[in-house]
Amino acid sequence: MQNDLHSERIQVERKQFFFDLRENERGCFLRITEDVGGRRDAIVVPASGLRDFQATLGRVIERVERTSD
């Protein structure tokens, strides 16, 4: 059984991304689902890895911003 704790959706070009924070008997996790024309793919990040995930994503964003200047 999973409990939904928080959900958000964003549209980027022709893709939709769903961010679902959930909890089950093994702990809290973030499921990120990409929907493109009805085809869905997802990744799951345990809550214990969210800070590392955020830090890595931040470094990638900084790199993209430096590259596009």
Q: Any idea how many domains? A: 1
Poorly predicted residue ranges:
none
Q: Whole-number radius of gyration?
A: 14 Å
What's the CATH topology name? Nuclear Transport Factor 2, Chain: A
Arrangement of strands in the largest sheet: 1-2-3-4
Question: Percent range for helical residues?
Answer: 25-40%
Please specify the SSE layout and strand pairing.
Blueprint: E1 3-12, E2 15-24, E3 27-36, E4 39-46, H1 50-67
Antiparallel strand pairs: 1-2, 2-3, 3-4
Describe this structure in words.
It is a single chain. With 69 residues, this protein is an alpha+beta fold. The chain has one domain: Nuclear Transport Factor 2, Chain: A (Roll), CATH 3.10.450.700. The protein has one helix at residues 50-67; strands at residues 3-12, 15-24, 27-36, 39-46. A 4-stranded antiparallel β-sheet has the order 1-2-3-4, with no helix packed on it. The longest helix is centred in the C-terminal third of the chain and has 18 residues, at 50-67. 0% of the residues are buried. The mean pLDDT is 96.
